[in-house]
Write a structure and sequence with these properties.
Layout: H1 16-29, E1 35-36, H2 51-61, H3 76-89, E2 99-102, H4 104-114, E3 121-126, H5 130-140, E4 146-150, E5 156-157, H6 159-168, E6 172-178, H7 190-202, E7 206-210, H8 226-229, E8 235-240, E9 253-258, H9 264-278, H10 285-295, H11 300-322, E10 328-329, E11 338-343, H12 359-368, H13 374-386, E12 388-389, E13 391-392, E14 402-406, H14 412-430
Parallel strand pairs: 1-12, 3-4, 3-6, 6-7, 7-8
Antiparallel strand pairs: 2-9, 4-5, 8-9, 10-11, 11-14, 13-14
Length: 431
């Protein structure tokens, strides 16, 4: 074309979690039975929302009003319910007007980064969740700016690095954190969260807290929401129902805008988020209508506790599976659906393989592993040899080689097979 129409940040729109699916699909077409461990979809892995939640949703769907537009910011009754929840926790209080609904958190993430000034950077974790890191890099046109999570310290953030970068890099306007974290499953204690708030306050920054898994914590990890620890720092807390009901296909997420009144520039930015939403009229109505009825139901706390116990048991299985594998570091997750297996230094090289009996499959994998990162090479061989699809840590903008898998397999026997097979194939691969 006579002018280049491609945005400077377009090359940063990479999502390894989905991109690896294209290779897995080719293998599936060749007869390989695929086990999807790459994505956090409980429904795909055999879990169904409780009958009572589905009955509530069915009743709402029968009401013609659930088929129409709602208020741009979201259903008022739902925003009132959520604002009351925030107030009941203690800490920052918000009004219904400080809650905006989106078509899933992916939509919210795109708006949050897309409406920042290009020079305003967000400092985020590494390993980085791809939706955030890609959107931040695409908005700026540069690689995502990160701070390290330490695998030798339970994947806790390096607060000294965060403080240094926040102080000396004046392009940084905000700090992103995910707790519970994806991909590591780490949950930050109160003292770490307080330090995030302190650093933001010292340097006049705002916080983005992705809390999609806030109510999925276990093994003694605390359930802490940004409104409880943020103090008077401006912040955006990201929430949703996709992981809790679970209902990932609902595409229903929201932002809680905290301390909007504390900074005029932040308030103008928050107003721009709603203004951009008005261009789309509204987000999906039916899932929003379900929130007060489901989350306000007396059965909901028991539902959350049952799932916490379920994932705690699976986290214990992960710990038991890899505890005696000396070549990897595996921290027992304390929240979310994920765990990471990190290979220690100098364990991987570019000559390791796994046995693949089908010549066509072997050829495809050998072609794919040319000039790729060492952990991606293992992931491709694992797919070809077993059909298990995991995500390389290098796909999360991480310098540590390894992979992320899930705690989601609902079939106990199949989950045991997955864990056992991963352990055996790691041993075979590294010899």
């Amino acid at each position: 074309m006579r002018r280049n129409i491609v945005h400077e940040g377009a090359e940063n729109l990479k999502y390894e979690i989905r991109e690896i699916v294209s290779v897995a699909t080719q293998l599936q077409d060749m007869g390989v039975q695929i086990t999807w461990e790459n994505i956090g979809d409980p429904i795909e892995k055999g879990e169904a929302p409780p009958t009572w939640i589905r009955e509530i949703v069915s009743e709402i769907a029968a009401d013609p009003k659930s088929w129409g537009y709602c208020n741009t910011a979201g259903v008022l009754e739902t925003r009132e319910f959520l604002a009351n929840q925030v107030s009941e926790r203690g800490g920052v209080k918000i009004t219904p007007n400080e809650i905006n609904f989106y078509n899933g958190l992916g939509d919210a993430v795109a708006k949050v980064y897309g409406l920042l000034r290009r020079e305003a950077r967000i400092l985020g974790p590494s390993p980085a969740y791809s939706t955030h890191s890609s959107a931040e890099a695409a908005h700026s046109g540069y690689s995502h700016t990160t701070y390290k999570l330490d695998p030798k310290n339970g994947w806790m953030p390096d607060m000294q690095e965060i403080r240094k970068k926040a102080k000396h890099n004046d392009s940084i306007a905000g700090i992103l954190l995910l707790s519970p974290d994806n991909p590591t499953g780490a949950v930050y204690p109160r003292e770490i969260l307080d330090e995030f708030a302190a650093i933001a306050k010292e340097n006049d920054l705002f916080i983005i807290a992705d809390e999609i898994y806030a109510n999925i914590v276990f093994n003694g990890s605390p359930a802490l929401h940004a409104s409880e620890w943020i103090g008077d720092v401006p912040a955006l807390a990201m929430k949703g129902i996709s992981k809790e009901y679970p209902w990932p296909g609902s595409r229903c997420g929201w932002l809680e805008i905290l301390n909007k009144d504390k900074d005029a520039n932040f308030a103008a930015y928050a107003d721009s988020l709603l203004a951009a939403k008005r261009l789309e009229v509204s987000s999906t109505t039916l899932p929003q209508l379900s929130i007060p009825k489901v989350m306000g139901d007396a059965r909901y706390p028991d539902h959350l506790e049952r799932r916490k116990s379920q994932f705690a048991d699976r986290a214990n299985e992960v710990e038991s599976t890899f505890s005696e594998v000396d070549e990897v570091i595996v921290n027992k997750p304390g929240g979310a659906f994920y765990y990471t297996v990190m290979f220690k230094d100098n364990v991987l090289n570019d000559s390791q393989t796994l046995s693949i009996s089908d010549p066509a499959v072997k050829k495809l994998i050998e072609d794919k592993v040319e000039n790729v990162e060492p952990d991606k090479r293992f992931v491709y061989y694992l797919m070809g040899a077993t059909g298990i699809v995991v995500v390389p840590l290098s796909g999360f903008q991480c310098k540590h080689p390894g992979f992320r898998a899930t705690l989601l397999e609902h079939n106990d026997q199949k989950r045991a097979w997955i864990f056992k097979t991963l352990r055996e194939k790691i041993a075979e691969y590294i010899g």
